[in-house]
Amino acid sequence: MIHDYLQENFGYSDFQIGQIRYAVVSILSEISKIIIMGIFFSYIHYFPQYLVAIAVLLTLRTCTGGLHFKHYFSCFLVSLGIIFAGVCVLPLIPVARPLYFILLLGCIIVNYFLAPIVSSYRPVPNGVQIKKSKRQAFYIITVYALIMFIVPTNRYTIAGFWIILLQSVQLIAAKLIKKEAEKENEALDKTMDFQSV
Question: Which residues pair with 65 in a beta bridge?
């Protein structure tokens, strides 16, 4: 019904309607995960730290990408695990103030060389989009480092720091998984080429 309406009144192709459908489902999926996690962190009395963590994660992840899952539940569990670790567990580890900045510099480097890693459902970014993503990640992490330098260390800045670090680590994991998948696809292509000869 909506498909026909968009096609008849706006002249959208099946592909464009598919993109719209994907965007709407993705947005609704992300909103539901954010709300459910918000309820959870509110229940365990970490809601303010959760807000900082989700703001930092969404800001950085929109330009860097990262791990992507095919199913809602697996995506939800990994997101919950990352935010729980960054908000509740890792802040318990004492870190010397200078080490925060060294690690954030490492995150800048990781994000610069690996970002963006987009979902297989999204179009592959072109050179301009890739450079833009790298610059955005650089600016976001640099601004966060400046905030941490100016603002006295507190549970909110520490939560954001750990989220940046975890996002950078999962970016490394996503890159390794993507490379492994590419190798498997190459091997499969060679096998198919050999069998067709």
Answer: 117
